[in-house]
Amino acid sequence: MKKKSLQLLLAVLVILSVSGCTKRCRCIKYNTNVDYYTPEEVSAQNKTCSEMRYMNGLSVQRYSLCEWVYGE
């Protein structure tokens, strides 16, 4: 019984790791268009995902919302 439970758990973990669940920063513009950024692109700009709302060096917002999403 334990062996089958362990095998089932291992199978679920393998499926989840292969399924391509990716983390991306989703930024929604005021006209409802959506841009996505990878974690590498966000860190290359020395920002967090929520800071991506603002244009570089300015306090002007480019997006209405930026948040991390998984698997979209």
Description:
This protein has two helices and three strands. The protein is an alpha+beta fold. Strand 1 and strand 2 form a beta hairpin. It starts with a helix and ends with a strand. The model has no long low-confidence stretch (mean pLDDT 85).
Strand content: 15-25%
What gap, in angstroms, lies between the N and C termini?
Answer: 36 Å
Q: Using DSSP, what is the number of strands?
A: 3
* Molecular shape: elongated
What is the helix fraction of residues, given as a range? 25-40%
- Main sheet characteristics: 3 strands, antiparallel
Average pLDDT level: 85
Query: How many individual helices?
Result: 2
Radius of gyration: 18 Å
Return the string of H and E elements: HEEHE
Any chance you could write out the topology, listing elements then pairs?
Elements: H1 2-18, E1 23-28, E2 34-37, H2 39-44, E3 65-70
Antiparallel strand pairs: 1-2, 1-3
